[in-house]
Amino acid sequence: MKKIIFSLIIILISCILFIRIVPDYSSKFGYKIVSLNDYKKYKHGYCLKEDRVLGKEEIFKRAVKNYFLVIKKDAENPKYWNGMQEEYYYSYRCSDGDSCFFYKFDFTNLDDYNKLMKTIYKISKTDFIEQYGKKTDIKNAKIFDENGNLKVSIGFNNRKYNYFYLYLPKSFEILSWDDMKKSNTLFENNPTRKIPSITNEYSRYYLRLKYIYTYDLMPNFIKHYIKKDIYSTENDMLIIENIPVTKCGDINIRDIYFQRFEHTPYSFDGV
């Protein structure tokens, strides 16, 4: 027994001295055990999977693409995370393979979207998403311009439960931890929430996003819209989130440290 205890103590001391834990949101458990040497590289900005430091633009593009893939995977999972209540729910939102799709849209700003929505009632019962959007394989879609910016509007539609996310080209930006602290936006409307120490220590960037969440698309969506001159329905919200990004551009949608849900009217800050 003493030998076993001694061996366990040696193993524990070795672990403390020679290995560390870093986030890896692409893995099942969300973290990875690394050597002390790799940990030092990680602290200096290395993406350990590729043994190199990624530039801010590359991290941004990966984070945006990974975000889209994660929300689709999350919607297809019967057990999903509800960011508003911060707990898990069971739902078969996208259990039907023909329920959820990504779409690309030609409009690139909120004004163009508003003009389009003001004419929606003329389309009769045709779904405006099907009418103006083009289904796309988000994993392989070319959605960035030569400068690394999102060049199209992206929509994610669940036809089974009638909700729709809309992301405009200016919906996304990448912020460093220092940028977040300087802008004092991490804890807006939620000043008591604490950031886990692992985030403070490891996260180099945050993905900030603003998107429109519309639910009960048809037919109430049209009815509410026609009654008003501006894009303003009680079925719409502007959602703002900050999501930590690893040095490899992976994200963890469970760790949203700031969410603000605003019912219309809203502003996209010049989008």
Keyword list:
8-stranded antiparallel sheet, single chain, Lipoprotein, 2 domains, two-stranded antiparallel ribbon, alpha+beta, 271 residues, 8 helices
Instruction: State the share of residues found in helices, binned by percent.
Output: 25-40%
Class by helix and strand content? alpha+beta
Tell me the fraction of residues in β-strands, as a range: 25-35%
Unreliably modeled segments: 187-202, 219-233
Number of strands: 14
| C-alpha geometry | elongated
> How far from one another are the termini?
68 Å
How many separate structural domains? 2
Describe the structure.
- This protein is an alpha+beta fold and 271 residues long.
- The protein has two domains: 1-53, no CATH class; 54-263, no CATH class.
- 31% of the residues lie in helices and 27% in strands.
- Strands 7, 8, 9, 10, 11, 12, 13 and 14 form an eight-stranded antiparallel beta sheet that branches.
- The N and C termini lie far apart (68 Å).
- 21% of the residues are buried.
